[in-house]
Amino acid sequence: MKTISWSQASVAGLLYAMVMCAWVYYDRGPGFDELAIRFAIYFVAFTVGFRFLMNFLARRNANRD
């Protein structure tokens, strides 16, 4: 398993944030302010968490071999 760069993780974070914000918008119909805050939190949390988790798993599998 290869490590993930910041740009790859940010694309995944962008897609995740867009899907989650679209879901919240169609489910509850919040205002733009709430959606913007949710988007920022979802994007940052998923990007950092996804990169950390995938790189951790890649290093763990490399050490195992």
List the helices and strands and how they pair.
Blueprint: H1 6-28, H2 32-64
List keywords for this structure.
mainly alpha; 86% helix; single chain
Structural overview:
- The chain has 65 residues and is mainly alpha-helical.
- The chain contains two helices and no strands.
- It has helices at 6-28, 32-64.
- Helix 1 packs across helix 2 (32-64).
- The radius of gyration is 15 Å and the shape is elongated.
- The model has no long low-confidence stretch (mean pLDDT 94).
Write the H/E string, N to C.
HH
Strand tally: 0
- The amount of helix comes to over 70%
Biggest sheet descriptor: none
Distance between the termini: 11 Å
- The class by helix and strand makeup works out as mainly alpha
- Sequence stretches where pLDDT stays below 50 over 5 or more residues: none
Global outline: elongated
Any idea what the radius of gyration is? Answer: 15 Å
Question: What's the overall average pLDDT, rounded?
Answer: 94
Number of helices: 2
The amount of beta strand, in percent, is under 5%
Task: Provide a quick synopsis of the model.
This protein is mainly alpha-helical and 65 residues long. Helix content is 86%, strand content 0%.
